[in-house]
Each structure stands twice: as C-alpha cells, then as structure tokens.
Amino acid sequence: VQLVESGGGLVQAGGSLRLSCAASGRTFSSADMGWFRQAPGKEREFVAAISWSGASTFYVDSVKGRFTISRDNAKNTVYLQMNSLKPEDTAVYFCAAVNWGTWYVRFWGQGTLVTVSS
User: Fold this and answer.
1) What is the pLDDT of residues 52-104, one digit of tens each?
2) What pLDDT score was predicted for residue 94?
3) What is the DSSP letter of 65?
4) Which of 33, 37, 64, 91 is the Cys-Cys partner for 78 at CB 3.0 to 4.6 Å?
C-alpha cells in the first residue's frame, strides 16, 4: 500500500483545512486507517482513526469536536476535516494503515505540513 497525503498549508487560527490521503492497492477498502501528527521537536502522536467500513471512528481528546475523519472506499481516499484550528495543531500530518485499537502502523504516508498562525 502506498499512501500520499495532500491538503496541508498555512491557515489562521480558527480556520479550517481538509487533508486527503490517497491510497494505492486493492487492500485499502479492508484497512483501518489513521491520522498522526508530529509537531516540531515533539514525538509523533495519534490523532484519529476510522475502521475499514467507516462505521467506527476514534479521536484523541485534544481534537474531539474539531476534527472529523472520513473515508471514501470507492476513491481509495481517507480524509481529515480540521475545524477551529489552533496554533498547537501545527505539525506534519501523516496518514497510515493501522491495527484497530493498538494503532500499530503498518504503512506510513510521507506527510503534509499544516501551519496554524495565531
């Protein structure tokens, strides 16, 4: 599986961005997917996940109510809608194929940079 993120950029605090992750390979529709982020000088952290069917989602507390993960299996794409962005959301965002619950990553994308200005 190859994963390619897009949609990052510079946005003011309070603004919105939608990240996309396009996957290659026939196994995407059966893969649980997640988003992670890594801020400058910090470790990579889990942000959100969605089950292969889209029926289940999970979010880290810091983004609940602001971020929404979704997927379109017909387009082999997973999305992360980010609203009410804060400067502390500034990071490189990565999508990944994960094991549900443990968030163990099986495949990483290359990342897309999100910068939120105050």
Assistant:
1) 999 999 999 999 999 999 999 999 999 999 999 999 999 999 999 999 988 99
2) 97
3) T
4) 33
Helices (H), 21-68: none
CA 90 to chain centre: 13
State the Cα–Cα distance between residues 61 and 63, nearest whole angstrom. 6
Q: How far apart are alpha carbons 50 and 29 in whole angstroms?
A: 11
End-to-end CA distance of the chain: 37
Write phi, then psi, for 52 (nearest 5 degrees). Answer: -60, -35
* Rounded distance between C-alpha atoms, residue 46 and residue 117, angstroms: 22
d(C-alpha 43, C-alpha 22), whole Å: 24
Give the largest CA-CA distance in the chain.
Answer: 41
Percent composition of the chain: helix, strand, coil (DSSP 3-state, to 5) = 10, 55, 35
When mean pLDDT is compared across 23-27, 40-44, 92-96, the lowest value belongs to 23-27
